[in-house]
Amino acid sequence: MTKFNEVTNATKTVWAGEKDYLVHGATQVPVVHSVSFGYDDIDEWFEVAIGNKEGHIYGRNTNPTVQSFEDKVKILEGAESATSFSTGMAAISNSLATFLKPGDRVVTIKDTYGGTNKIFSEFLPRLNIDVVLCETANHEEMEKEVAKGCDILYLESPTNPTVKITDIKRMATAAKKVGALVFVDNTFATPMNQNPLSLGADLVIHSATKFLGGHADALGGVVCGKEDLVEKIYHYREINGATLDPMAAYLLLRGMKTLDLRNERQCASAMKIANYLKQHEAVEDVFYPGLETHPNHEIAKKQMKNFGGMLSFSLKEGLDGVREFLPRLQYANRAANLGSVETVVGPARTTSHVECTPEERKALGIPEGLVRYSVGIEDVNDLITDLEHALSYVPVKN
Ligand SMILES: *Cc1c(COP(=O)(O)O)cnc(C)c1O
């Protein structure tokens, strides 16, 4: 397989991971809709089945279209290996379940994605796994908890929806001292802006549903890292069955060809929009790691190439202001996803943290009037005009 060492990620998004899967002279990867793969020679069949020879046996295990998708992400993350899942949550839960056993201890942050937070607060404790939730940007607290002994350090940076930043390299160094595995959810940053493996992480996870696919038309998840770790996760998934569908893999693969192009536009627009919102009289607070006022802007600058297409902001009028503002946006889907070519907005209380009670959201520092804004690829001036119009309906408290 071509390693693409000599080209940048922009070129890799277009070319990487595809060549080995082309057939009949086609220039595009086929969608292989086949549950099983047949062999006339029973010795060959056996060799493939036990993994001595390359090939496919059964769709729950492997599929060529799915593998092409895994190869592309693997190359973009600079990983040895990758394996995929039906959703981002399946990637997260299966990866945790592969390595955890009763009595283990996980150190993580309070601001993980809502679903991930539920795994930590609801499902793992039930299996007698101790989970410690630390303040996301409190590195000293996290280092102390890690030093007490831990099996997995689970991070997400930037976080959803308040885009908080954790110093991945610093925390990975702390985790290595106690022999813990470091997981990083890289969904918000994408491989274009951040490569956690190069910062010391053992495993990097994506909800491919978001920026990787980029068109809000396919669900998927992926985990990348060292071959021996990913092999174990693959084995857990092939038995437990949260397999990525070939049609979804094809849509994700197709979407990823424009990942660099989309990301460039989305990062530039997000920066402009964050600056615009910051000076608006109806806006209370703007959260974007690219802003110099972001508490961990310096860390973000150190570990990220660009700051991503996600921002959030709160209105002085709170939820009442959001009720006036949100319905008036013309160029935004009011929906639960993010990272697509269209701009997507929603209050955190109905999107990322809908699973939480108001008290839980408060404890997480998520105002009920917080709006998550996933910047699409539209013209940024049109988006600002749209925001300006919708915000003009929000009464301004003085
Ligand atoms: C959406 C999301 C997930 C979950 O992904 P699904 O594909 O919806 O299961 C995990 N982490 C982050 C940061 C997300 O935004």
Description of the molecule:
This protein has 398 residues and is an alpha/beta fold. The chain has 2 domains: 249 residues, Aspartate Aminotransferase, domain 2; 133 residues, Alpha-Beta Complex (Aspartate Aminotransferase, domain 1), CATH 3.90.1150.10. It is 39% helix and 14% strand. The protein is built from 15 helices and 12 strands. Strands 1-7-6-5-4-2-3 form a 7-stranded mixed β-sheet, with helices on both faces. A 5-stranded mixed β-sheet has the order 8-9-12-11-10. Helix 5 links the parallel strand 2 and strand 3. The longest helix is centred in the last third of the chain and has 20 residues. It starts with 8 loop residues before the first helix and ends in a 7-residue tail after the last helix. The model has no long low-confidence stretch (mean pLDDT 95). The structure holds pyridoxal-5'-phosphate. Pyridoxal-5'-phosphate (PLP) binds next to helix 4 and helix 5.
